[in-house]
Design a protein that fits this description.
Elements lengths: L1 E9 L5 E3 L6 E7 L2 E9 L5 E3 L4 E8 L2 E7 L4 E9 L3 E5 L5 E6 L7
Length: 110
Amino acid sequence: MVIGKYKKYNCPMGRKKKYNINETVDYIEWNGKTGYRKKVKPQFDGKFLTNDELESIQIKDSSGVFQIHYKTNFAQWSEDILVLTDSILVLKNRQNLEYHYKRFKPITIQ
């Protein structure tokens, strides 16, 4: 799943912050309960620029709440999965920030 990160997020006290343009998107892939997330940069030819940096992920059930657990060489953290469909992903972190992701659609130039 290639998704646009930080399309918007809900801040504490009802404030919302929108990010309308971002040159990179998150590529998330998992099979079963394990996978990874990495940044990719879409190109006009439909391909993506990428590097070898990635975050390992595990999907876990914590008392009926599914969470994504991330791990890098530098940090570990988790986020609750609030919504997951084929085109939408909503995550909530420990600071109660909600991140709303939308499936990436490539730009087509005619």
